[in-house]
Amino acid sequence: MKKRTLPLGRVYRLLEPGPVVLLSTAHRGRADVMTVSWHTMMDFEPPLVGCVVSDRNFSFELLGRSRQCVINIPEAALARQVVGCGNVSGRRVDKFARFGLTAVPAAQVAAPLIAECVANLECRVVDSRWAKRYCFFVLEVVKAWIDPAVTAPRTLHHRGRGEFMVAGRTIRLPSRMK
Amino acid sequence: MKKRTLPLGRVYRLLEPGPVVLLSTAHRGRADVMTVSWHTMMDFEPPLVGCVVSDRNFSFELLGRSRQCVINIPEAALARQVVGCGNVSGRRVDKFARFGLTAVPAAQVAAPLIAECVANLECRVVDSRWAKRYCFFVLEVVKAWIDPAVTAPRTLHHRGRGEFMVAGRTIRLPSRMK
User: Alpha-carbon dihedral of residues B76, B81, B86, B91, nearest 10 degrees?
Assistant: First the structure.
C-alpha cells in the first residue's frame, strides 16, 4: 500500500462531500467491516467525526468495546464490495475474506486499514454518551492515510435502495469557507 | 413553486449523499441563510438529522432561539449563491436580497423555504443538549417538499477551499440496505 500520511487538518476535505465509507473494527480476534453513510464532520483539527452505527450491527459491539475503528474511503470501482458488506452480517461472515478486502495493520489503532480504499482514517471514540439514544459516536481521527495519486476521488454517495451517485466533475469558486 | 410533498420516509434519500445545503432560519423579524455541509441522517422515520451550526454564525442564534429551520437543497446552478451565503454574515447582510433568493412561507415552521432549491425540509430542533459542546443540533424533519421534475439532483458537495464536486452519474446495485 503506497500511501502517504495526510495532515489531520485536511481530513474534512475527504469526508465533507458525504462519501459512503467502510468502517472497519476489531476486538479480541474478531474484525468487521460495515458500510456507513450516516457521518458528518464535527470539528476541523483535531478532526472530529460524528457517526451513526446501528445497534443491530455486529460493528456496534466491536466499536463500543474496542473504542477504535478505521474509516476507509472506497472509490466507485469497489461498489460491489461496498454493497456486499452492507448485505451480510459480520456475525456470520468474515467480510475481508468474502469480499477480497486486504486488512493492513494500522499505526495507532487495532482495527485494520482496508488496502483497496483510497484513504484510511484511524479513529478513537472520544464520546459515546449518545450511543444508547442515537447509536451515535464521536470519533477523533488520530492518523490519516491517502493514496497520493488521487486528488479528486471517485467516491460513492448512497441515494438509498441500491442507488448510488458517483462523484462527478469538480468546480471552483472564490470561497472564504475553509 | 410547483413542488409536491415528499413522504417523510424518503427524506434520507436526499441527505445521505452529503449535499451542501442552505439552512434558513427566522426569529422575530430577522431571517438568515447559512451554507452547511456538516450534517448527517440519524434516523429514518420520523427523519432525524444531526447538524453542526457554528456559534460564530448568526444562524446559531436564530436556530437556538426559534428552534426551527428549513434545510434547502440547491443544485449546481445555484453554486454562486451557495458560496456567497458562506462568504458573508447574516448579521450585516440580508442574504435573500443580496443573492436573489426567494423566501416562501413554510407550512409548519416560521423559517422560510428557498424557492430556487429543488427540495425543502421543514425542521424542528428536538435535541440541543450538544449545542454548547459541539454546536450540534438534532433536527426532526416535519414536512418535506420536492420538485417533482427532479429525480437525480445535481447537488454540490464541498471539498473545501472553494472546491466542489458536482453529483455525477447514477449506478444501481442489488442492495438490501434501505
Answer: -150
Q: Is A150 exposed, middle or buried (0-12, 13-18, 19+ CB in 10 A)?
A: middle
User: Residue A46: which residues within 8 A CB-CB, separation 6 or more?
Assistant: A8, A140, A141, A142
Helices (H), B25-89: 58-66, 79-87
Could you give the ipTM of this predicted complex?
Answer: 0.96
State the Cα–Cα distance between residues B137 and B50, nearest whole angstrom. Answer: 6
The dihedral through the CA atoms of B56, B158, A80, B41 has a sign that is positive
Shortest CB distance from B165 goes to which of A50, A152, A176? A152
- For B156, which residue in chain A has the nearest alpha carbon? A17
Contact A171 B86 (CB under 8 A): no
CA atoms within 13 A on the CB side of A50: 26
Q: Which of A14, A38, A82 to mutate to test the interface with B (most CBs of B within 10 A)?
A: A38
Q: What is the pTM of this model?
A: 0.97
Q: What is the pLDDT of residues A55-110, one digit of tens each?
A: 999 999 999 999 999 999 999 999 999 999 999 999 999 999 999 999 999 999 99
Q: Does B17 contact A18 at a Cβ distance shorter than 8 Å? A: yes
Angle at B159 (CA atoms; ends B143, B154), nearest 5 degrees: 50
Phi, psi of A14 (to 5 degrees): -90, -35
Query: From the CA of A73, how many Å to the nearest CA of chain B?
Result: 14
Interface test with A, best of B14, B87, B177, B178 (most A CBs within 10 A): B177
- Whether residue A165 and residue B170 make contact (CB cut-off 8 A), yes or no, is yes
**From residue B98, how far is each of A20, A74, B111 by CA, in Å?**
35, 39, 18
Distance, in Å, from the CA atom of B17 to the CA atom of B151, rounded to the nearest integer, reads: 14
Cβ–Cβ < 8 Å for B19, B38: no
Q: Please answer yes or no on whether B159 and A176 come within 8 Å at the CB atom.
A: no
